[in-house]
Structures are given as structure tokens and as C-alpha cells.
Design goal:
The protein is α+β, with helices and mostly antiparallel strands. Among the domains are: 120 residues, no CATH class; 182 residues, no CATH class; 105 residues, no CATH class; 158 residues, Galactose-binding domain-like (Jelly Rolls); 67 residues, no CATH class. Helix content is 42%, strand content 10%. The protein is built from 33 helices and 21 strands. Helix 17 packs antiparallel against helix 20.
Length: 1014
């Protein structure tokens, strides 16, 4: 019999056997009693089917909630035909090797399918009072919700095993008849380790030293050196910032900048470099301001909660009580909940916003309890002291001031009780005169002939106008003073003419203000017109050459709008350094002597206190001031007569102490700002801080117009660990809510938190996690490739003080990590995805590493740490800001900082970085996509930054070597970590002779050997 006939006969025999088994199974089933609906059938339908087939929007218009709707069928026909399982679509959909239902979930077990079939065959009896609900519960054996196991490390007789990790991996390999790969050579290992832990290439000197080190512990000492370097924190902070979707603009339609988001980035870098225990890392990021108020890190760390996008319009422009405002707030809390639970628990809790989670045991009540945790905070700028000693001193002074103020209020009550009608009338008269004085204009004839600076007039209010002063050199500035103009015009009484209701004041080193320090920002809400009172802005010695005032909303004249200022004063050591400086503006009305740019700094004001002309006559304003002084003296004498000496002495003492405390506070170093979670901030448009947590209701289908029961703060009931319902001593204390959640997550019994972080670290070392869905440990996520090893690592991490550096040390010291990345076809046939780790995964450099590596080899890398992020783009703060990367000079020194310090824009990503799969800061990114595209090749070859670094690399090697051979070897060693072969030297020498050294360097920067780790 030939092979074709033998094959046909074999399959005929299999078909006969299969038919026999089916027939036997059917006969056996008929012999049994029909399945009981309540006990056997209903649980299957509730676990697998009801989640999608219920409610008004049941999938396929088929509801399996009760008998009537189930037997009515759906849009595809009869799902259940009593007595006829073969005609019932339900049986058809759940049967077969690849059943159509349930979608995106594990298929029913064969015995469950057979139970449904037998039930239908027996008549599909469904009791009339039996109503089904979605009762999916996590399988009792579902791995991620179980307590940590204590797996024994496999005992293997193998010299390959260096660490317990190796024993777990080798055991799994041997079970699949696979062997590990050989160890990589030292040159490969130092390159792999340095990129892995620093995101930078090793220098030729570092490579040479490692290759020449004969010590047995040379590799281990290399690991220690890399972990001890501050470059480690910069590298691994980038991974964390991906996970928490950190960005420095708000996102949405008005993608406004967050100038003070960067302290959180620096906090993460510092925490990693300090090897801060992971449980402390959790506590600080969720409630550090409450738990550690004297530690600046505790305040800055709450930048985690607000790292994501924020709807500027929804929060600051929509009115309170509107549906859209509530939607914006609900979306904001949803982002906080998702970021917290995805990051720390690897659970997609946000899927329970509209209904119970369809795949995991997370109830809608769990989700809204978590929303309630964040119901008392908003995203805003918060002050803090960078020095812990200063923070402690400020807290002590503030407490003392509160105590003194309380005593002052008590004494005022004593004063009020002693006041006679005569004294009360005198007090009221003084207040009336003060109001009249403020409303009395300065007489026309007593003003300066120069009025100040005036913009061009426009026909609507929301137009940006600016005027700036060039101080001639970078100077420290103590205070800026904006003197309002005085002009009687169109019924306007005079004071505060043209003063913008919304404006910002900045200082900068650059005339285009591409990078600046904002010293006053009143762009979110209207600033009260100051009238005759100069607006004083403390600058506290910050230095700059240029001072700019930008109006974002103009002052209304009659039916048109403008901005005007009488004078801009810049005080440095009590001297006006702006006097006579150069003035420039977006536009100006030049109508000398009244209005002109130069009038802004001419030392004259349209108000009498700076200069006026007249014959010395007493003005009405002076009369009012004199009357107030006279009455004030009378008031003092009357109070002295009414009150005993002791209360007056006590009040004087309290006021003296209050003044002294204020002076001490003012003498402290100025506070910094961080964009963080807070309930204490100045109103921003229609956004005001809440005095106590806002009420959070469970929302049916996530609709704010369909609010149900009021929720109390809590966590996820199905996660093993501390109680999920928080016992709060004061439910109105929003800080206590976040503290409760932080402790719930950091508690050692919450093992899901430890599994999650261990898996993340593994993922970044190997390119894929033990669970290859780092943000989803639920049913829709991947199963662990090595579950016993994951639990062993999590237990070791937990018991070892939760040190991330210790975990890194263990992983990179393993034989698994040290393997070559060479492909082996025979192993790939068994495990094409290398989930069993029979070799090391080859990795392409991520976007930041490509950029940093180019800077490193060209000699241009600026390793300055921390501080405000560098804006590597042209920026214009328009109604909707402009971010233009094409207009940025790649030779600007700001271009040479590490990628971690790059200003991250949500709406307009850097095209160069985006082409290299940089993370989208609007999305939680547990792992980046890695693509190889033609766009990348074109970008890496033609981008201005690459061309610039190629030129700098050429200059570096040409300065070190005069001959082409030496230049080629230096370039190879810098870029690839090895010398060139003789053939490569010959080819490159010819190439340099034809196209030049810079072009040859560009070829190296575009080579796979440069762009891939090994």
C-alpha cells in the first residue's frame, strides 16, 4: 500500500473510532438522569455566558437571564431548541476544537459542554422563577490571586547553574528536551550590562579594563560598579515613567505645559539610586505628603498620582454643577485609579467602571471605592522645601503662627466685647473713608506727561500680547513691580487703565523665551484690577537678562481690548535695573509723549507718587488721608480708655510675635513648586479646591447622570491581603483615605504587588516578562512561563527588604542572563518565542538609548543631573500652545542632555523619538512596541541630530588621530566596542576618501551593530 493510501486508511479508522466514542458517549448520557438546572446548568451559564448576554445591550440580542428571553433566541436565531441540541446555536457556538464562544476567554470544559447538550436534549427545563446573574468568580486555581507559594529550588546536577534562577529555567528546559546556550564573551557582556543598567554604551577604556581583569569576580564587580552609578537611576527611572504615563503637558485639546512636573522625575531617579525599599516607594507616591510631611520626597512623590493627562478645559473652564464638569472629574479619578492599580497590582481595574469586570473578580463597587480614595484631591502646583531642615523649620514656624493667631482672635473677642457704640461708629467711619480714598482718582493736572506702554487695540479679549525688557546682562532680581497706568477714558475713572485681567511674568536668558522661569502666573483666573496699587512680584534673587509680561486676556476699554502699563520696575539690591533698558513688544501704540515702549522704563508714572506738576494745593485724596490718620489716633485713645492695660499689652505682645514669625518665614529660602496631588491651591478658573472629599456614587453604566449608592473608600475585595474596606477614623480627611490605600498596597500580605514588580524588572532585563502582559495578571493576560520561579523571586524580594538593586543583582548574575543571543533552529522549533529562555533575547536600543549613545560616542553627552526639563523644540504659549521641533537648533547645548531630562509633550511628540517607538505619554505603557521600519532607517540617516552627532564624532576621532586607520579604529571602538577587522578598515578608508569622515561616522551610527545591544 502506498503512503497516500495508508494515510487515507488511517484517517478513515480515526473517523470510525471517533464516531464510536461519540456514539458511546451519547448512549451513556441517555442512561443518566437529566442535569439539574439550578445545580448543574445555571452555574455554567453564569460563569461563562451571562456576562455578555444580559441587559439592554446583550450581545447578539440574546439574553440568558431568564427562561422567556433565553428561549426567544437572538438575532441569529434559536439559541436553545428544547429536545434538539444539534439545532441549538448555543451548543454549536461552545463546541469544537476552537469554539466561537465565549469570545476572548477560555472555552468551556468538555464536561460542561456535554452538560449543556444533555440538558437541552432532555427538554431544556428552566424553572420559571430561576433568574441568572453574572457570577463569574476567579477560578480557585487562578495563579495571580493565590498566596505566594514556597517552591523548592530544583536540585539539578549541572555546572551551568549559578543561581536559583538558573535551576528553575534549566528544569523547565529539560522538561522540554532543550539545553541552554553558551555564555556570551566578555565584550558582549559588558555592552549588554552597561546598556541594561545605564542605557549607555561602555567606553573603550571600560571595555579594555574588563577584558584585562583576570579576577574570578570581575563580572560581579562590574555589576556592583554599574549599580552604584547615578546613571542607573536615570536609566531605570525612564522605565518607571513609561509605566505611570508621565508627561509634562496636560494633553487633551489645550495641551498646556506643566513647568513643574520635573521634580517627580528627579524623585524617581533619586529613589532608585538610593535603593529605596519598594514598600516605602509605594507609600511615598500615594500618600507621602501625609505620612512624611517633613520629607520633601514625600510631597514630590505624589506627582505619581497626577502624572497622566488632565482635561484643562473640563476642569478650569466648565461651570460647577454641570454634567460635563462631573464627567471631567470622573475621568480624572479614573486615570488615578487605573494608574495605581495597573502599576502596583497589574490589574485592569478600570474595566469595572461601567459594570463588573467581565473577566476578573473585580466588582463595580471595588472600582468606585477606589475612586472615593481620590475624591478629595486635584492636580495642581504645590509648594515644598527641597531641604528637609528648612521644611522642618517652616512647619514649626507655621504651627507657632497658628497658635499665635488663635490667641490674637481670642483677644479680639475681648476687644469687641468692650467696644462702646461710639467706638463702633468711629471704626465704621474709618472704613468708609478708606473705601472713598481707594475710589478717588488722582487729579488730571497732577499726572506725569508720559502715560506708559500701550498695545495695539483688538476687537476681542482672548488675544496674547507681550512686552519685554532687556536688562543688558544676566542680573539677579529681588522684586518686579508692575505700576498700573492712570488714564481717564470712556467713563473709566483712571486707576488701573489697561491692566490685563490674565497675565504671566517670566524671566529668561533668551530673548525668545524658549526656556524661562515663570515668576507670576495669573493666566487661569481673572486677576482683580489693582487700581492705583503697584503689583509687587517676589523674584527672590533668581537671575535673568530678559523680563517679559504676557497678557493672555486683555482689558476692556469700551467695545475693544488692550493692555497698558505705566512702568515696569526691576529691583536688584534696592536699585531699579530696568530704568532706561531696551524695550521690545509684540506690538505697540507709539504716541509720544503719552504712549511709547520707552515709557515703560523711563522712571515716570502716570500716578502722582512718582512724579507730578502743580502748585502744592491740597488735593481731595490728601484730605481723606489726613482725616483717616486723625480718626485712627482717636480710635487708639478710645480703646486705651475702654480696655484694661493687660489685654492691650497681650495684644501688642502677640502682634509683635506674629511679626517676628512672619519675618522668620520670609527669611527662609524660597519654596519650590511641584505639580502634584493636592487639596490646597489657589483657584484656577472654575476649579477650586474642595474642603472635604467630594461624594462618589456608583454610576450605573458609568453614567454620571445615573448615580446610585454613595461609596466609601476601599480597595479590591478579591485581592488577598489586608481588609479591602477601610476603617477610617475621619472619613472627611482625604489624606487618611490615601494613607489607607497606600498601606493596603504596601502590606506584606499583598503578594500581587510583589509579583507585579518582580515581573516588571524581569521584563526589562529579558525583553519579555515571566508574565508577558505586565499590566494584566487577570484572565485576559498571559500565563506565567515559570510560575514557580515567579513566586520564588517574589518571596525572596519580600523577605529581603524589597531591594530593587538586590533583584537586579540576582538576575544579571544568572547564567540565563549571560547566554549568547544566537538563534538555534532546533530549539526555535520547540519554543519559537523563547519563552523558556534557551538563549538571551536580542534587543534593539530604545529611543532614549539611541539618542544618548550617539551623544556619548560623539563626546557631546551632558551628564548634568536633575533640574527643569530641557525643551528641545520651539515653544509659543498660545491659546493652544505651539511645539515645533523643526525650529529647534540641534547644536543648542540643551540638545546634549540625556533623554530622561527631555521635556515630554503629549500632543506633539518628538518625531525622531516617536519613529524609534518612544512611549506615548498619554498611555500607561508597561512595555514598548519594538518595530523595524523604513521610516526609522530614513530618520536615522537624515535627521539633523544624527548629522550633527556624526560630524562631532568625526571631529573627536580626527583630533585624536591624524591617519585614517587610527580614525577608523577609534570610531569603531567608540561605536561598536571593538576594533575593526582588516577588511573593514580597508572598506572604510576607501569610503572616507570618497565621502569624508563624517559620512563614515554616520554609517557606523546607522549600523545594526550600533543599534542592537548584541
Amino acid at each position: 500500500m502506498d503512503s497516500a493510501l495508508r494515510c487515507r486508511a488511517f484517517w478513515i479508522a480515526i473517523g470510525i473510532l471517533s464516531a464510536s466514542f461519540v456514539s458511546f458517549g451519547s448512549r451513556a448520557a441517555c442512561a443518566d438522569d437529566p442535569p439539574d438546572f439550578r445545580r448543574q446548568v445555571a452555574p455554567i451559564l453564569e460563569r461563562h455566558c451571562v456576562a455578555c448576554h444580559q441587559g439592554e445591550k446583550a450581545k447578539g440580542k440574546l439574553s440568558l437571564v431568564d427562561a422567556g428571553r433565553a428561549l426567544a433566541g437572538g438575532e441569529s436565531g434559536a439559541a436553545i431548541v428544547p429536545g434538539k441540541p444539534d439545532e441549538s446555536l448555543l451548543v454549536d457556538y461552545i463546541s469544537g476544537d476552537k469554539p466561537e464562544m465565549p469570545k476572548d476567554a477560555a472555552p468551556l470544559k468538555p464536561d460542561e459542554v456535554e452538560t449543556i447538550r444533555r440538558w437541552i436534549a432532555a427538554g431544556a427545563v428552566w424553572p420559571a422563577d430561576a433568574t441568572l446573574t453574572d457570577k463569574r468568580e476567579i477560578d480557585a486555581n487562578w495563579w495571580s490571586f493565590q498566596p505566594l507559594a514556597a517552591p523548592a529550588v530544583p536540585k539539578l546536577d549541572s555546572a551551568w547553574v549559578r543561581t536559583p534562577i538558573d535551576a528553575f529555567v534549566l528544569d523547565k528546559l529539560q522538561q522540554n528536551n532543550l539545553e541552554p546556550s553558551p555564555e556570551a564573551d566578555r565584550r558582549t557582556l559588558i555592552r549588554r550590562l552597561t546598556y541594561d543598567l545605564h542605557g549607555l554604551p561602555p567606553t573603550p577604556e571600560e571595555i579594555d579594563a574588563f577584558l584585562a581583569d583576570p579576577a574570578a569576580d570581575a563580572y560581579e564587580r562590574l555589576v556592583e560598579r554599574l549599580l552604584a552609578s547615578p546613571r542607573y537611576g536615570e536609566r531605570w527611572a525612564r522605565h518607571w515613567l513609561d509605566v505611570v504615563h508621565y508627561g509634562e503637558t496636560h494633553g487633551y485639546d489645550k495641551d498646556k505645559v506643566r513647568m513643574n512636573a520635573w521634580p517627580y522625575r528627579d524623585y524617581v531617579i533619586a529613589a532608585l539610586n538610593q535603593d529605596k525599599p519598594y514598600n516605602r516607594f509605594i507609600l511615598e507616591q500615594l500618600a507621602g505628603d501625609v505620612l512624611f510631611p517633613d520629607d520633601p520626597a514625600g510631597i514630590v512623590a505624589t506627582g505619581f498620582i497626577v502624572a497622566g493627562p488632565w482635561d484643562h478645559v473640563g476642569h478650569t473652564e466648565l461651570g460647577e454643577g454641570t454634567v460635563d464638569k462631573e464627567i471631567a472629574r470622573s475621568n480624572d479619578r479614573d486615570d488615578m485609579v487605573a494608574a495605581t492599580c495597573n502599576t502596583f497590582l497589574s490589574l485592569t481595574v478600570q474595566c469595572a467602571r461601567c459594570h463588573n469586570h467581565k473577566f476578573d473578580p473585580i466588582k463595580q463597587t471595588d472600582y468606585y471605592r477606589l475612586q472615593a480614595v481620590f475624591a478629595g484631591i486635584d492636580r495642581a502646583e504645590k509648594t515644598y522645601d527641597s531641604d528637609p531642615a528648612v521644611a522642618q523649620k517652616r512647619h514649626e514656624l507655621a504651627a507657632h503662627m497658628r497658635e499665635l493667631d488663635g490667641r490674637r482672635q481670642q483677644l479680639e473677642q475681648v476687644f469687641a466685647a468692650a467696644m462702646t457704640p461710639e467706638a463702633t461708629a468711629l471704626e465704621q467711619r474709618i472704613k468708609q473713608l478708606g473705601v472713598e480714598l481707594a475710589a478717588t482718582p488722582i487729579e488730571e493736572g497732577r499726572r506725569s506727561p508720559t502715560l506708559g506702554y500701550h498695545t495695539q487695540i483688538v476687537d476681542h479679549a482672548d488675544v496674547t500680547k507681550w512686552v519685554q525688557v532687556d536688562l543688558g546682562a544676566t542680573r539677579p532680581i529681588d522684586e518686579l513691580i508692575l505700576v498700573p497706568a492712570f488714564v481717564i477714558y470712556g467713563g473709566h475713572p483712571g486707576p488701573g487703565f489697561g491692566f490685563p485681567p490674565r497675565f504671566r511674568v517670566e524671566i529668561s536668558e533668551q530673548p525668545d523665551f524658549a526656556q524661562s522661569i515663570v515668576v507670576a502666573d495669573h493666566t487661569a483666573t481673572d486677576f482683580a484690577n489693582p487700581g492705583d496699587v503697584p503689583v509687587r512680584i517676589a523674584v527672590d534673587g533668581k537671575a535673568g537678562r530678559y523680563v517679559r509680561v504676557t497678557a493672555t486676556r486683555l482689558w476692556k476699554r469700551t467695545g475693544d481690548w488692550c493692555m497698558a502699563l505705566a512702568e515696569l520696575v526691576a529691583l536688584s539690591d534696592k536699585t531699579d535695573i530696568a530704568r532706561g533698558a531696551m524695550v521690545s513688544a509684540l506690538d505697540s501704540i507709539e504716541a509720544s509723549p503719552s504712549w511709547a515702549q520707552v515709557n515703560l522704563v523711563d522712571g515716570y508714572s502716570s500716578q502722582e507718587q512718582l512724579q507730578f506738576e502743580g502748585d502744592g494745593e491740597v488735593t481731595h485724596r490728601q484730605q481723606l488721608a489726613a482725616e483717616i490718620d486723625k480718626l485712627s489716633v482717636q480710635r487708639t485713645k478710645l480703646i486705651d480708655a475702654l480696655l484694661p492695660a493687660e489685654p492691650r499689652r497681650q495684644m501688642a505682645d502677640v502682634q509683635s510675635q506674629l511679626a517676628d514669625v512672619r519675618r522668620q518665614i520670609e527669611a527662609l529660602p524660597p519654596q519650590r513648586l511641584v505639580f502634584a496631588a493636592t487639596h490646597d491651591f489657589a483657584p484656577i478658573g472654575t476649579l477650586s479646591p474642595t474642603q472635604k472629599p467630594r461624594p462618589v456614587h456608583l454610576l450605573a453604566r458609568g453614567d454620571v447622570r445615573n448615580a446610585k449608592e454613595l461609596m466609601t473608600p476601599g480597595a479590591i475585595a478579591s485581592v488577598s491581603g489586608p481588609p479591602a474596606l477601610f476603617a477610617l477614623s475621619n472619613p472627611d480627611d482625604e489624606g487618611e483615605r490615601r494613607v489607607a490605600l497606600a498601606h493596603w498596597l504596601a502590606d506584606p500580605s499583598n503578594v500581587l504587588v510583589r509579583r507585579s514588580i518582580v515581573n516588571r524588572i524581569w521584563h526589562y532585563h529579558f525583553g519579555q516578562g515571566i508574565v508577558d502582559s505586565p499590566n494584566d495578571f487577570g484572565r485576559m493576560g498571559s500565563l506565567p512561563s515559570h510560575p514557580e520561579m515567579l513566586d520564588w523571586l517574589a518571596r525572596r524580594f519580600l523577605d529581603g527588604g524589597e531591594s530593587l538593586k538586590s533583584l537586579h543583582r540576582l538576575i544579571v548574575s544568572s547564567a540565563v542572563y549571560r547566554q549568547v543571543s544566537t538563534d538555534r533552529p532546533e530549539a526555535a522549533r520547540v519554543d519559537g518565542g523563547n519563552r523558556l529562555l534557551w538563549r538571551m533575547n536580542r534587543a534593539r536600543l530604545d529611543a532614549e538609548s539611541v539618542r544618548d549613545a550617539m551623544l556619548s560616542v560623539s563626546g557631546k553627552l551632558d551628564l548634568t543631573m536633575g533640574g527643569p526639563s530641557v525643551q528641545q523644540f520651539y515653544f509659543k504659549d498660545d491659546h493652544s500652545p505651539i511645539y515645533d521641533y523643526a525650529r529647534f537648533d540641534v547644536e543648542d547645548p540643551k540638545s546634549f542632555r540625556r533623554g530622561i531630562y527631555r521635556f515630554i509633550v503629549r500632543s506633539v511628540p518628538d518625531p525622531f523619538m516617536e519613529s524609534l517607538d518612544c512611549a506615548d505619554p498619554s498611555l500607561l505603557t508597561p512595555k514598548r512596541n519594538t518595530t523595524l521600519t523604513a521610516i526609522q532607517a530614513l530618520t536615522l540617516y537624515n535627521n539633523r541630530f544624527v548629522l550633527s552627532q556624526s560630524q562631532h564624532l568625526a571631529e573627536r576621532v580626527s583630533q585624536a588621530h591624524a591617519e585614517p586607520a587610527g580614525q577608523i579604529e577609534a570610531a569603531y571602538r567608540l561605536c561598536l566596542g571593538r576594533p575593526p577587522t582588516a577588511a573593514e578598515t580597508q572598506v572604510f578608508a576607501a569610503y572616507i576618501g570618497r565621502f569624508g569622515l563624517a559620512s563614515a561616522c554616520r554609517v557606523l551610527l546607522n549600523s545594526n551593530e550600533f543599534l542592537f545591544v548584541d
